Amino acid sequence: MTPVEKRALSYATTINGLFDEIFTSKKNADRVIAEYFRATKKHGAKDRRIIRETLFGLFRWWGWLQQLQAEQTDSSARTLLLYLTSQIEQHPWPDIAEAWATLADSQYYAAEIDSPQAACQWLNNSFAPRLFTLEQLVPDWLWQYLPAEFSAKEALIESLCQRPPIWARIQRMHRTDAMAQLHANEIAATAGHFDDTINLGHKSINLQQVPLYRDGHLEVQDLASQVIGQICAPKAGERWWDACCGAGGKTLQLASLMEQAGPVASEIVVSDVRPAAMAELQKRAQRAGFNNISSAPWQNEQLPVDADSFDGVLVDAPCSCIGTWRRNPDQRWLDEETVVNHSAELQQQILQRAAAAVKPAGVLVYATCSITVTENQQIVENFLQQHPEFTLETVIHPFTKSATQYLTIWPFEADSDGMFVARLRRVA
């Protein structure tokens, strides 16, 4: 073996081991690879990049690659998949890709692939008469859960196979000044759709080395997620409850929007069932300088806050997270169809309980990072049938400018995750 082939074989052993561990344990790939790098210090920056990007690439194209693995039983089949992944994604390490081809006893040639369609054609040419299609890149069960009027099937598949950029939000300073500082630190930042939105591109960034982040002026938050705060549209002086706050991305956005709206004192109460997530939120709030956020954790099924006491309540409900499949391609294959209906039961319960905290004329916002009707429209419709004191409001889609009562952000509309949001008003 040449030195390059030895390195390629070492990478292959590591990547395949991690891949198998993820499928066996059903753990999130981000978590598995982070644990591996913490425990294994021998890898340099380039090694880590090759391992990480190839691993995620395997999941991104697994709908195709699993068919090739099933047809071959020898060990070289696994290495062939690494070679194909590197070619489909045009990874910048052709020496390793060529070595993988050699180790797999496969002919190597540099492919020029710039889209999922081009990758599909390349595979069809390389492995005829087997037929590869774009539809194979997502589980068959997905389509029955999308809205009946949805017609952008190919656009959705393409977007799920492309990594989204790092979206961020600026708080407590002007975006122009923030971008100037980022550019001075050689970080390519461009203005996003909203006044406080920034696109940080696709390169990995060590946030701890970014002064804006350390000082609390920069928060990473996907663009689709930022839509939720914009639909909430909190006003200065209002009192809001984030009923499923998690680590607080949307909580901090609400605080920032309130501060932008005026100098009147506002208040946000946050709740979650996970103490670690709420602790992280408080740490982020302290870093940003927001001192108007207090905690009221869920202890049981009883409301952790006073009823009829909030101008606005945000229910960013736990969900199947199908809208984040492009960011987490492993979940596309780890999740089973049952995750949709399982989440829906919990969502209905949380929305019913949280609604009691909305005062008359107040706002109730329901959101998920899913794109299924079961977890979104059906949840809201069921809720309205049981709660005539609420009515559904019309909102404007921030990217298409169309008026709608059920707002779904599709990943291909703004190079973001997928997200759903509905805004309700208590009228009695």
The oligomerization state is: single chain
Would you identify the CATH architecture of the largest domain?
A: 3-Layer(aba) Sandwich
From the alpha-carbon coordinates, what is the Rg to the nearest angstrom? 23 Å
Biggest sheet, in brief? 8 strands, mixed
Low-pLDDT residue intervals, each spanning 5 or more residues: none
Assign an overall shape.
globular
Q: CATH homologous superfamily of the largest domain - what is it?
A: Vaccinia Virus protein VP39
User: In the residues, how many domains can be counted?
Assistant: 3
Mean pLDDT: 94
> How many individual helices?
17
Extended strand count: 14
* Beta-strand residue fraction: 5-15%
**SS class:** alpha/beta
CATH class of the largest domain: Alpha Beta
Distance from N terminus to C terminus (CA atoms, Å) equals: 77 Å
Instruction: State the helical fraction.
Output: 40-55%
The CATH topology of the largest domain: Rossmann fold
Keywords, please?
3 domains, Rossmann fold, alpha/beta, eight-stranded mixed β-sheet, 17 helices, N-utilizing Substance Protein B Homolog, Chain A, Alpha-Beta Plaits
Helix/strand layout:
Blueprint: H1 3-25, H2 29-39, H3 45-60, H4 62-71, H5 76-88, H6 94-103, H7 116-126, H8 153-160, E1 167-170, H9 175-184, E2 190-191, E3 197-199, H10 211-214, E4 218-220, H11 223-232, E5 239-242, H12 249-261, E6 267-270, H13 275-288, E7 293-295, E8 310-316, H14 331-334, H15 338-354, E9 358-368, H16 377-386, E10 390-392, E11 395-396, E12 403-404, E13 407-409, H17 411-414, E14 419-426
Parallel strand pairs: 5-6, 5-8, 6-7, 8-9
Antiparallel strand pairs: 1-3, 1-4, 2-3, 9-14, 10-14, 11-12, 13-14
